[in-house]
Amino acid sequence: MSEETNEHAASDQQQPNNTLKSRKHKRTKMIIWIASVILLAVVLLLLIRHFNNAKKVKPPPPGIAITTTTATKGDIGIYLTAIGTVTPIYTASITSQVNGLVIAVHFKEGQLINKGDTLIDIDPRLYTATLLQAQGTLERDENLLAQARMDLDRYRKAWIGEAVSKQVLDDQEKLVLQDQGIVKIDQGMVQYDQLQVDFCHITAPIKGRIGLRLVDPGNVVQSAATLTLAVVTQINPITVIFTIPEDDLAQVQARLRVHAKLKVDAFERTAQKIIASGELLTLDNQIDTTTGTIKARAVFDNKGDTLFPNQFINTRLLVNTIQGATLIPASAIQQNGQASFVYVIQNKIAFMRSVTPGVTNAGSTQVTGLNPGEVVANSSFDKLQDKIAVTLPVPAAAPVVPKPAAAATPGSSAP
């Protein structure tokens, strides 16, 4: 009885456990099934997207962004450049021609003076006294000459009347000639002493600018060429001396033969700014064999005093002008060994084209092989190649200018 009871109790306990296991098994299958469905849906979705992407046409790659420039038609000059030195046409070193004491200086340092202006006075009293003595001697000897001539006239009349001998007449004639010689000596002495007095008043020999004062009142000066009292330099006009290579001499001479005025520009040291303009004056008469160049002189009016004596400047000589040339920026020309080329832009495609560069001036180069109006690339050359697509810059929109407010008519009122 007890065994049967135990068996029934065990069977009753095992029956709920089997039911629980069955429910868990079903739930696991359901989860696996749902996960499989989700996975299958994801795979199908990915496959569909892949096929759709495969059907789409890939857009072409974007073109290379560049900047461009347009070939123009214009004139360009053929220039020769060189370093030059500003050289005055005249420079006068003022020295004293007499010995004496400086009593006055009439100029200010750096002053503009005219020819004939008095610069320095030297004490003239000694030379004035000497001049007065020479004038007295001249006056005495002129009177002696006059007396000798009167005696000669009397002797001639007396000789005609046979009152005196021929020897007496001849002696008197020679005496007159001697007195004439003495008078000429006296005249020379007067002129010499007058010059000495004049030299006591030193005047400017040329028009120009005077330099620093080298002598003061109270100084004793000597008539020596080594002692400079002042320096006067002509600055208007003024010249510049520079050199021309002998290889370019022929074309310069050809222009001078037809009396062409060749323009010369003077630049400051950085060669960026023109400070004066003039024209070629002349060429030297020989070529320097050590440098293979010939000296040239250009003249400038220098009204603004922009050129200063002994100043180093950069010169640019205009030899000729090419008219109607095709011009592009020098930066647009590329080199491939000895050949030059540009990228011509047509329908947003870059085409390589060979060109022959010529004269370059102020960043522009004259070329052959290109027509005015054609557009060429001016940047991104490291990325460009023949027949490659490019992207052109979009021009900036013009700013909108607001319209001015209409003026109120008489009798109208604001709302």
Automatic annotation (TrEMBL):
Residues 11-20 have a biased composition (Polar residues). Residues 1-22 are annotated as: Disordered. Residues 1-10 have a biased composition (Basic and acidic residues). Its main location: membrane. Keywords: Cell inner membrane, Cell membrane, Membrane, Transmembrane, Transmembrane helix. Residues 130-199 form the Multidrug resistance protein MdtA-like alpha-helical hairpin domain. Residues 237-320 form the Multidrug resistance protein MdtA-like beta-barrel domain. Residues 91-233 form the Multidrug resistance protein MdtA-like barrel-sandwich hybrid domain. GO terms for molecular function: efflux transmembrane transporter activity. GO terms for cellular component: efflux pump complex. The chain crosses the membrane at residues 30-51. NCBIfam families: RND_mfp. Belongs to the membrane fusion protein (MFP) (TC 8.A.1) family. This is Efflux transporter, RND family, MFP subunit. It comes from Solimicrobium silvestre. The lineage of its organism: Bacteria, Pseudomonadati, Pseudomonadota, Betaproteobacteria, Burkholderiales.
